Amino acid sequence: MSISLSIILDTRRIKQKTNKYPVKVRVTFKRVSRDYQTIYDLSKEEYDKLTAPRINADLQIVREGLKEIQRTAENATKDFLDFTFHEFEKKYIVDNRFFRPRKFRNVEAPITNYQFDFSSYEQKFSILKEDQSKPDFISTVYISYIKKLLQEGRIGSAFNYQDSYYSLKKFRSNLPFAEITVSYLIQYEQWMRNKDCSKSTVGIKLRPLRAIFNEAIEAGIIDRKRCYPFGRRKYQIPTSRNIKKALLLNDIALIYYHKPICVDEQKAKDFWLFCYLANGINPKDVAYLKFKNIEGEYLVFERAKTENTTRNDPKPVTVFLTEDILGIIDKWGNKNRKPGNYIFPVLEEGLTLLEQHFAVRAFVKFINDRMARIGMELGIEKKLTTIVSRHSFSTQLKRSGASTEYIQEALGHADKKTTENYLDSFEKEVKKEFAAKLTAFKHNDLKTA
């Protein structure tokens, strides 16, 4: 285990009060360095005199202090079986009279008035049993953040972070942040692509890792300047090309008038159309709808996906209850219409958050699987998933002349850019049509003399 320590004068920025520079201890481990500011400030001339045989009394005190720091720091590093900067700071730097107080926080979950019970999650979240003894390893911060997500009831996000961790672990085990470099990320991407994973999948796995890096920086575990591999001129997470997901109106008509031969396909078709007609509503939001969301002729609800991000500025989605929507509610909805009851029997009272998560997943799978069969029967090439119903809603609005701002409000998007991404493929289709019109005369029967 190679750890080097040196005393340096940080001449990047002079202190206004003393007109001198801070003296720091630089610790280097596995080619990663971290500086710790001592209580001493020196000018360049004073720093150069430290090695002189004869110096004044004040500088002699500084020199003896720096020798003491060097000696005790070296002894401290010898006590570690597995050195980490986090543990070094906690055991040596914090409360050491030779060092300036520095921001230092533990990565453990904040103390609350009650102890959150994670035992019911351990079967599905095996990451909770992973090693947490090394604060500067990615597993520790992943676990800390996943616990936070579970406490907030964000089960789907917690699963995404767990999947991200296990993908990285499978590639090259659990590692300290310092070893996840630009080169590592490039090799990971190549490894994923060799497994026929798309750029989109690579992005899905690496965005949580980037968030975990930011958590570690915020907690003081790593330094952004020395240990952050993401960003401009570093590693950039790949993004996929926006693939057109919307259906043409003729395809939607085929679905609408289709007569399924079994009850399950009829039910799936009706729920798919409900998603399409009700502003492209997400199936998770369908599951959470309650009769109290019906306000006269309208259905008013807040999207589960943006509930946390729009807490200070809620953006409720308002849907006019058409005859088709009301018909689907009458056909498949709960008969007891008390305001607190769910509209559809996807969820029921008393379910845990984890049970609710899997009930919604089963609901989505039920729709998508049966709509796939309907798509094959109708000869529709695109997959008839619930996300396609959402994209189809936005595209048909745009074709009808609706503004992007109106579509943003209808979809419940907090950011206009998200709506523009939905409509990107539509805009390309329009450009194609307009380009063809420039030479429409080629298809006329008129001939020039």
From TrEMBL:
Coiled coil: none annotated. Residues 136-217 form the Core-binding (CB) domain. The keyword DNA-binding applies. Keywords: DNA integration, DNA recombination, DNA-binding. GO terms for biological process: DNA integration; DNA recombination. It holds the Pfam family Phage_int_SAM_5. One of its GO terms (molecular function) is DNA binding. The keyword DNA-binding applies. Belongs to the 'phage' integrase family. This is Site-specific integrase.
